[in-house]
Amino acid sequence: MHDDQYTVAVHFLRVLTDYCESQGLPAQTLLAEQQLSPSIIADQQQRIPYLAFDRMLRSAEQHLNDERVGLHAGSHGRLIHSGSSGMVLLASATGRQALPRMTHYGLLNLDAFSDEVVLVGDRVTLNWRCQISAENPLSHHHAELYFAYSHACIPQLAGVSATPAGVGFRHAAPANPQPLEEYFGCPVAFGEPVDWLAYPVELLDLTISGISDADMLTALDAICEQQLKAISAPQDQDWLQACRGYIVRALLTDGPTLAAAAASASLTERQLRRRLTAEKLNFRSLVDDVRCRLAGQYLADPSFSLAEISLMLGYSEQSAFQRAYQRWHGETPQQARAGLSKPSSHV
């Protein structure tokens, strides 16, 4: 996936926005800065670009003058912020049932990181691996928020607190690590190869004090699996179809522009350029490809003259269309139309 395709669910975004609201910073302020509709916060099924979430975290730090805003937001998180995957945890009987579900369904909250559980000796460790490329370095807030949130959810599940055996972050040590050390109550390492959070293995034997129901767990598993399929299914390049449709329309009017094409696909110009590059295209070649496809359709209709086809394809002169067609197919449009009009031969 490209970096701008990773997303975070609105229900998990509210870990941040609900905390910011409690501190006097309206969610709509953060959303408006990312050109996102304030109404999106009420739609729990919506997802927003993960890079927009990153920018919202950085903005919240500035607005609240709080360099540990991720830690503080995560520590105030509730299971409800995990949507259906949070309900699955509540329906589990023990930590041994809940932990693998937390990692498996983690994509329902956010897909820019992958969870990996490692059981070694007397520790069970959650490794949190970032999928975002080094071209878009994330702030320290992400891991601090996620681990603080995960830690805050344990007493909500089991009715008792659990002290981590250790926690490690990829980011460099802050000038004052005390807030992190006090919250987790264990040694905190920095500059690690991967973000990790470890607990004593006894965590797996904690009894979940929620609704613990086998039939409900099965039903919720099915719901979560359906939701996973919905967000994991390969998209049929909706953004590319939107761009092509825009170009077809624009060729008949003012001519296509990158900015308008990006807007038609709900992307920024930068995002569109990156996606086109990943498809081994650029905007000029995309326009050229659309013209090439349309030319074949128009030539097959004898009611269109070559001059009319040239105009419909956005060429100011017929000669420009003829040169382009010869470049595409190695023959002139006149030759192509003549070939189309020949009766087919049958042996």
CATH fold-type name of the largest domain: H-NOX domain
- Tally of structural domains: 2
Low-confidence stretches: 343-347
Which CATH C-level class of the largest domain is it?
Alpha Beta
Question: What is the rounded distance between the termini?
Answer: 50 Å
Rg: 27 Å
How many helices? The count is 16
What is the CATH-assigned architecture of the largest domain? Alpha-Beta Complex
Q: Level of helix content?
A: 40-55%
Give a written overview of the molecule.
Helix 4 runs parallel beside helix 7, helix 5 packs antiparallel against helix 6 and helix 5 runs antiparallel to helix 9. The C terminus is likely disordered. Strand 3 and strand 4 form a beta hairpin. The protein is an alpha+beta fold. The protein contains 16 helices and seven strands. A five-stranded mixed beta sheet has the order 3-4-7-5-6. A two-stranded antiparallel sheet has the order 1-2. It folds into two domains: 230 residues, H-NOX domain (Alpha-Beta Complex), CATH 3.90.1520; 104 residues, Arc Repressor Mutant, subunit A (Orthogonal Bundle), CATH 1.10.10.
What are the defining features of this structure?
single chain; alpha+beta; H-NOX domain; Arc Repressor Mutant, subunit A; five-stranded mixed beta sheet; two-stranded antiparallel sheet; 16 helices; 7 strands; elongated
Short précis:
This protein starts with 6 loop residues before the first strand and ends in a 6-residue tail after the last helix. It has 347 residues and is α+β, with helices and mostly antiparallel strands.
